[in-house]
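Translate sequence into structure tokens.
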Amino acid sequence: MTLSTWTNPLTAEQRLAMRTYAERAYPKETCGFVLLDGLVVECENTSNVPDQFTISAQDTADFLDDAAACWHSHANYNGFSPADIKACKALNLPYAVWNCGGSDSFWLDPRQSAGLVGRPWNYGVYDCYSAVRDWYKQQMGVDMGDYERLYEGE
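Result follows.
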């Protein structure tokens, strides 16, 4: 499986698996991993909060080394939450989110920069600072680094 920077590389079969798991767990979030061989596995969500997820320690131990991406569902939120973006960057692993109220998944890869033209908008990952940072890296060879952006209310 080739992991893309800002296009969604998930296959129709992988999206269907995520959707099936998400609809079964609704209104609670569900979660899991997309493995390097392409298999989508559902993991135990140990969060006591319905609109949050925590992958069980056992499932993390079992699957993380073979994970191409982490995925989870959103019952009532479209796209990535600020918490998703922070966790994605901390784990340094692509994230996929299935929106139960929509018809598709969203993809975010913190390890790669998006193209300078046509990039998606995700505050803290693909935002104005990241566009400037990526331009300097690509055009000038200057690595400006990254920093954690604060979200409203923090």
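Note: The two ends are 37 Å apart (CA to CA).
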